[in-house]
Amino acid sequence: MSTQTIARGLEGVLFTESAMCFIDGQAGRLYYGGYKIQDLAEHSTFEEVSFLLLHGHLPSKLELQGFSEKLVSLRTLPPVLLESMRRYPKDAHPMSALRTAVSELGMLDADEDNVGPEALYEKSLSLIAKFATIVAANKRLREGLDPIAPRADLSHAANFLYMSTGKEPSAEETKLMDVALILQAEHGFNASTFTAVAAYSTQTDIYSAITAGVSSLKGPRHGGANEAVMKMIGEIGSVENVSSWLENLVASKGRVMGMGHRVYKAYDPRAGVLEKYASIVAEKHGHSKEYAILKEVERQAGAIYNPKGIYPNVDFYSGVVYKDLGYDLEYFTPIFAVARISGWTGHILEYTKLDNRLLRPDAAYIGQLDLPYVPLEQR
Ligand code: ACO
């Protein structure tokens, strides 16, 4: 028997230092670079937050202008990639399309393996800019439409909406998208960020590391949960059904999608911000069945699970907001990726500046040793 302690799920394991994100899971507090998430969501833009995550401080007006212009200049996809994306299977999940497109971007970069600090920064900005273009182009192609070229006069959030829907968004829609992107841009060493940094610690190229991050985000226990929430709403069907649905869920030891978090044992502050916007959206439409079902699930499931530290997380209300902005279910996780690319690249830059030490945990061996080898024909 090993005497080593095993940290199942790596819970509570500190493997590096970081100044990007502070989470107080017990009190439900979240900060990026020292700033409260609520303040950033209310007052800043995705460009400002991305600058903060990559540079460690909020930009001055001049810095923000330069950073935004740089992102704009990097929005356009290589034509070869767009051609390739036209051939992706129409029924492939958009996260699979994004994963493949990021990998292709790497192959199309003649300087793919350059890990020098300037090249790494430039590639990070390019990925932040292009994630939105890839997801929007894939959406259009799946709808049987031509991708829309990015517009240089729109902000990141507005341009993403424009490329996705073909319509110039209103100021309210742009704000909603900015808030959604800001809330999901960063969250410490969650599974996808850890995956991306662990991959990059082998000194692979950044496209490979980010492809790994996208793969990790796709899972229903991580980024895929927002999609699972909308499926859950569909399963429940009406506010009246919540109580019988919940009874069955509890009896079968199921999980309420969009509730619970490895770190938050209180209300996820991001869910609080999104709830506010989801309620505005619901009001705009006079009535939203989805929102009403979620509020009832929150109330009834909360009575059972809140005492165990299980509360709504960021994914609980995000789907209602995305749906209002014109995105189908399968695009909820890709939107998350359009936001989280800033956190992934920020952490890769930060970890690389520190030392980029190879990540290599261990397991306590519980197998046998010195077994006699029996030739195949005698087994
Ligand atoms: N509904 C019901 N019970 C739950 C839920 C839930 N949503 N979440 C956790 N539990 C229960 C588990 O069944 C388990 O109970 P048990 O001890 O009686 O077996 C206990 O709480 C602990 O669960 P773990 O999975 O060990 O806790 P963990 O910290 O790993 O949970 C996780 C985190 C995976 C997110 C979990 O809460 C979950 O599956 N939630 C639903 C999916 C989801 O919303 N994911 C999004 C997370 S946020 C994000 O990635 C952006």
TrEMBL record:
Catalytic activity: oxaloacetate + acetyl-CoA + H2O = citrate + CoA + H(+)
SUPFAM superfamilies cross-referenced by the UniProt entry: Citrate synthase
GO CC, one annotated term: cytosol
Tree of life domain: Bacteria
A GO BP entry: carbohydrate metabolic process
Biological or metabolic pathway of the protein: Carbohydrate metabolism; tricarboxylic acid cycle
Pfam family, one: Citrate_synt
Catalytic residue list: 261, 315
Keywords: Acyltransferase, Transferase, Tricarboxylic acid cycle
GO MF: citrate synthase activity
Similarity comment: family membership: Belongs to the citrate synthase family.
Protein name, entry field: Citrate synthase
UniProt organism field: Calidithermus terrae
Lineage: Bacteria, Thermotogati, Deinococcota, Deinococci, Thermales
Gene transcribed to yield this protein: gltA_2
